[in-house]
Amino acid sequence: MTYLVRDKKTGKLVERKSPIEQGVQRVWDNVSHTYQHMIAETVKEKKQIVHGQRALNKQLPPFLRKPTFDFDLWVNEPKKAMIQLEKKLEAAVPGNQFSIGKETLPNVWGKAKKVIYHIRDNASGRNLIDYSKTPRGATTVVIDGVQYQSLQHAKQTFIRILQSPDSPFHQKAKAQYKLQMIRAFELENQRWRP
User: Is residue 8 assigned to a domain?
Assistant: First the structure.
């Protein structure tokens, strides 16, 4: 989470991260820089679609961004893509550094359950990548040669999560926060249009 602080020397507002977040980010950057670079190359190479917080961060201004540690990806064959990338990561890092898993969640776009395949870093215990099947009607935006979920599609998804009685409370809270970020960005853009 970033916040604005007035600089004592210049008197201007400066964006700063909380001290705890700076420490967490520094450790994570040192550990996973290689992984993130390899994952980003694979995403671009295989034309996979990035969604979630990373897609929002790419399209929102810096003061509305939230740090994220994982990649949320949409592909046509999530299990196959997960196994291929896990093998590539295992080949680059010696030892049993990664594990793969499967999780089933309620789907806000219909009655079917949503299956998520993930690659976990065993050292830190964090999910590096979450793969799921590309939903029908998903709109994308291409930025720097990578496909990202569009803000309009993300907004529709968050509204559906908030309206769904099956969504857990923590998911609704996150959806409401992200929806507010998108709306703030849209209001800011409307204000500066001629």
Answer: no
pLDDT digits (tens, 9 = 90+) for 19-69: 545 544 544 454 456 677 788 888 889 999 999 999 999 999 888 888 888
Contact (CB, 8 A) for 52 and 72 = yes
Per-residue pLDDT reduced to its tens digit, 79-90: 999 999 888 888
Strands (E), the chain: 2-6, 13-17, 49-51, 71-75, 98-106, 113-121, 127-133, 140-143, 146-149
pTM greater than 0.85? no
Q: Rounded to whole angstroms, how far apart are CA atoms 95 and 142?
A: 36
* CA atoms of 164 and 160, how far apart (whole Å): 6
CA distances from 163 to 85, 132, 151, 157, 166 (A): 35, 22, 18, 10, 9
Q: Which of 98, 93, 87, 100 is nearest to 34 (CA)?
A: 93
Q: Is residue 94 part of a domain?
A: yes
Amino acid at 126: R
Question: Within a 10 A sphere around the Cβ of 88, how many other Cβ atoms?
Answer: 13
Distance CA 90, CA 92 (A): 5
Which residues make Cβ contacts (< 8 Å) with residue 122, sequence separation at least 6?
A: 96, 97, 98, 99
Domain span holding position 140 = 28-150
> Quick one: how many helices (H) and strands (E) in the chain?
5, 9
